[in-house]
């Protein structure tokens, strides 16, 4: 029931803090992502958890260049 409650009461976040995500919570989110569906179960799953701000910002810039943003 908790999962259904969370799905029905989700909210979007537009403001973030500098507080790091605890390792245990990050592990749970990554594990949940392993169970996300893929098209006909044919797509490989690749997840990268970046915790370093400089690396995250670099990846964001590279992505923006690739996407022509």
What do you see in this structure?
With 69 residues, this protein is mainly α. It has three helices and no strands. It is extended and about 40 Å long. The termini are far apart. The mean pLDDT is 87.
What tags apply to this protein structure?
single chain, 69 residues, 3 helices
Q: Extract low-pLDDT stretches.
A: none
Annotation field: number of helices: 3
Query: Percent helix among the residues?
Result: 40-55%
Described by strand count, sense and barrel closure, the largest sheet is: none
Distance between the termini: 40 Å
Helix-strand pattern: HHH
Beta content: under 5%
Structural class: mainly alpha
> What best-fitting shape do the alpha-carbon axes yield?
extended
Average pLDDT works out at 87
Strand segment tally: 0
Radius of gyration: 15 Å
Indicate the topology.
Elements: H1 2-8, H2 23-34, H3 53-66
In short:
48% of the residues lie in helices and 0% in strands. With 69 residues, it is an all-alpha fold.
């Amino acid at each position: 029931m908790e999962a259904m409650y969370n799905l029905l009461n989700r909210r979007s976040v537009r403001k973030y803090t500098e507080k790091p995500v605890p390792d245990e919570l990050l592990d749970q989110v990554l594990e949940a992502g392993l169970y996300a569906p893929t098209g006909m179960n044919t797509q490989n799953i690749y997840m990268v958890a970046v915790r370093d701000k400089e690396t995250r910002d670099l990846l964001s810039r590279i992505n923006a260049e690739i996407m022509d943003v």
